[in-house]
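Weekly modeling sync, notes
Attendees: S.R. (lead), two postdocs, one rotation student

Agenda item 3: backlog of single-chain predictions. S.R. asked that every request posted to the team notebook include the full sequence so nobody has to chase files. The rotation student volunteered to paste the first one in as an example of the format we agreed on. Action items at the bottom.

Example entry:
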Amino acid sequence: MRFLDGLIADARTEVENASIETLGPLLRDFFSHFDSVKEINGDFSLSPQSVARSSLRPGFIKIGSDFASSELVTRPGEDQVFIVTDSEHVLVGLPTILFS
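Predicted structure, as returned to the notebook:
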């Protein structure tokens, strides 16, 4: 377990999820190192088990969750991450989950 500025990260164990291969190169690399990342005293979480089609944004891939049932999503083959709560709002994303 490692602590990353308010986050707890568990080292990677073997998880079979073919959906990870649809992610961008940085996200695939991220999930090859971490089994889960969770916010301390918060709702933010990422895990290879979470990677699946988004239930909120058609055509997007869910990689985790955040506050109030929101999803952390990306487009197939890309690394830019968005927090979404529905299918209608304008997307404003982070360049990647690996930002400083």
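Discussion: group reviewed the output briefly. The radius of gyration is 13 Å.
Action items: rotation student to repeat for the remaining queue; S.R. to check formatting next week.
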